[in-house]
Amino acid sequence: MKILFFIDSLSSGGAQHQITNLAILFKKKKYNVNVLIYNNKNNFFAKKLEEEGVKVEVLKNTNYIARIFNARKYLNKNKQDIVVSFLETPNFLACISKIGFSKWKLITSERSGTKKSFLGLKNKIFKWFERFSDVIVCNSNVAKNLWIENYPNYSKKLLTIYNATFVPNIGENKYIALKDNKINIVIAASYRGIKNLTNLLDALCLLDKENLEKLKISWYGNINASNDSEENYTKSLKFIKDNSLEDIIKLNDAVHNIDDYMFEADFVALFSEYEGLPNSICEAMMLGKPILMTPVSDYKTFITSKNGIICKDSKAENIKIALEEVVLLKKQDLINMGLESKKIAFNLFSSEKIIEKWEKVFNNIINKKEGEE
């Protein structure tokens, strides 16, 4: 079976991470796999795909109109059996390419699922074209329910498949709880506004000196992820300096070995205003890490009081309250919470289980006769 994965770029974003994981997993299962992109400026995951023998092709992309015609031409000449597209614009390009006499099947997936993504003329046009997809895969039930609420006529082709997550290879590293008598927290997220670094910094300023000095926070993320990322990063560095937080929180660029940093941490955190299914949380749980996060995505499914702490919301005051709860934990608490995270993660996110679900979808749509629901 020939599968083409289609996405905007191979930058360090969550959707790009996930499509890279899927392409590699299916390649290892002897599928004929290629990846198509149209933005070649940031190739964070390109080397990883190359190492696994996955070919990446770049669509000719002179302007927006040309991109539509070039995508349609490529997709209808490539002779793939299935196209799997991620994110709004690639989904739209794939859907518009499907119109006519195409023989290939199409699976679209948005990866975020927010109320805002269903508003506005552009989003409504893009969603209208989803009628030409064979299946719409969401990576959370929250996202799936939003689709059903806004487009009930698509309900029969909607389903949820969680992110495929590798069991990370952390080499000879050993976890030392409460290293230097501090709670070490790692955050893997870009510096986009929705990732909520601003409110985290405000929360740190609300903590009393004793609790603040019990924390060591390391943030890793793409500084150029969006138009506001670099500005947020620069302003945050200034805020950290102005408020003497240099010994508490460090801001870093994205790294390929984020698993190593997560494994050494006591907690992995995420303070986003909204998310699809965050890769960093799935991977952290696979590593056996306690989780600190805002109430986004399907958090009720994979976070309980036994393996994590949930902020009431993404506001600074409630992040502060959650951090006060974190600093009270002892070494054995952290170990027990980590064990529970690992148990939940293997049940929900193991690559073997996720690939089985994708294969079932592939086989169903390939074998489905024309006109069948």
From TrEMBL:
Entry keyword Zinc: no
Domain named Glycosyltransferase subfamily 4-like N-terminal: residues: 13-164
Key words of the record: Transferase
Keyword NAD found: no
Pfam families, alphabetized: Glyco_trans_1_4 (PF13692), Glyco_transf_4 (PF13439)
GO MF annotations, alphabetized: transferase activity
Record SUPFAM superfamilies: UDP-Glycosyltransferase/glycogen phosphorylase
Name of the protein this chain belongs to: Glycosyltransferase
Organism: Fusobacterium nucleatum
Lineage of the organism: Bacteria, Fusobacteriati, Fusobacteriota, Fusobacteriia, Fusobacteriales
